């Protein structure tokens, strides 16, 4: 579906939308002023007023074209206003994850030479104050919220967002001509944002994404996915990540969709019931949690309830796969008995979910499709703005990330001899192409300009022929891209066999007893796993079986619990090749999280961190005899 307005830069996207909806009551954004309040909507006229005020403030402050302005904030309305104001004055948005410790914030601020720093809460302001003196280019900090500790506001380099807006409004008339000139000077080739990598393998690198990079991706997304004025999107993935930035923000704006901000990642389930979104952009972790909750509730039900559920699931799968006639009648009954309740849990208005950031287990995707909750899985990197491929509505193929998007070419390079063995361009699509496995490459307008002040890293990522090397392994299956895993995640066992842990871990995600699982076994004679149990499930099991324990550490050491997991691991491992089977494991008493460092902000596992943190358990597994 075409975008609602014409645009070649993000500045034009905002300006043309603001003009289209001028003097209307069209909602652009909505947020909760506090947890007890209802959602407050913001019209496009109000957005224009706020963006103009902040843009005028930026000009008065002295922000020149291509100057960097940093934002350290959760998803919220102010984030969007500041971003749009930065685009209006020709600046570059430098986004930071709120989970970053002060030292990493300092590194990014210094590396990007940011002049102005917008932060959200008192927690983030504290970080800014701590590092301010070590960042020579940083001149001022603007806080969205008034800190609970008033002493934070005693620094002369800190002011409140409300005050900045008031200053901007006072000089709007004076800055009007400059703002008009600056916004008209923004070109597609200009850098719009620096998005820094997580830095799990060294210092973070700032991917330079131009207006053209992102705009081309937004337009290609609209070619593939229907987003319109009647849609409402719930935004909760970090806006400093390119997936949410392009998919859940700019692409939604370009279709005229309303963007509602979740209070936090933890309140998504509650906010879906309040917002009734038609589109939700998410990572697989959300779908895994919903799936496991449903699975548990079914297992706790009576034999009749389980039978009805399994019947409904079978009917749903057959209907999704194209069967009609009697199945259509049965599907209506299955919806009424089972699936309508699940749809109500997601707000009752979902047209489709968009999944990215990590691989969606095929079985979990198929479950949602059977329930009539379509998931459009896509694939890409920060460095590709980010989308390279995606499944189209009505053409979903679980286990693949769909077809290459328009304007982009994806290639497969054989690992053994670096020969490109297959490539597909979005406009000229051979749906029957099947290839052997290799590294996935990208070439097209979505390829980043390069890494900020890091030519060496840029050349390592983008070769002389313009191919961006993703570091992911995959292949084409009937013209759709299928991802295997990251090259760097590959495990080479003692026998020299290459094993990719991702598909093995995905297999176990449907177990009602397993919340998280990481495969280990580099240079070992067998594969093993570190397992985070579903704590609610094992506590319930302990209660039902009179297993006494003092703490979670006690419970996971109980022999009956260990035997339960031995049985579960053995059962799932039957589907694996001999060298892939999980032969041993250790249970962990705490889940992996962003806060404790084992997960990225988009909830992907940091394998190196986990190996370091639980090295003693891994050593214990492999210190005995081979399994």
TrEMBL record:
<dbReference type="InterPro" id="IPR045851">
    <property type="entry name" value="AMP-bd_C_sf"/>
</dbReference>
<dbReference type="InterPro" id="IPR042099">
    <property type="entry name" value="ANL_N_sf"/>
</dbReference>
<dbReference type="Pfam" id="PF23562">
    <property type="entry name" value="AMP-binding_C_3"/>
</dbReference>
<dbReference type="InterPro" id="IPR020845">
    <property type="entry name" value="AMP-binding_CS"/>
</dbReference>
<feature type="domain" description="AMP-dependent synthetase/ligase">
    <location>
        <begin position="22"/>
        <end position="452"/>
    </location>
</feature>
<keyword id="KW-0436">Ligase</keyword>
<dbReference type="Pfam" id="PF00501">
    <property type="entry name" value="AMP-binding"/>
</dbReference>
<protein>
    <submittedName>
        <fullName>Long-chain fatty acid--CoA ligase</fullName>
    </submittedName>
</protein>
<keyword id="KW-0443">Lipid metabolism</keyword>
<dbReference type="GO" id="GO:0004467">
    <property type="term" value="F:long-chain fatty acid-CoA ligase activity"/>
</dbReference>
<keyword id="KW-0276">Fatty acid metabolism</keyword>
<dbReference type="GO" id="GO:0016020">
    <property type="term" value="C:membrane"/>
</dbReference>
<dbReference type="InterPro" id="IPR000873">
    <property type="entry name" value="AMP-dep_synth/lig_dom"/>
</dbReference>
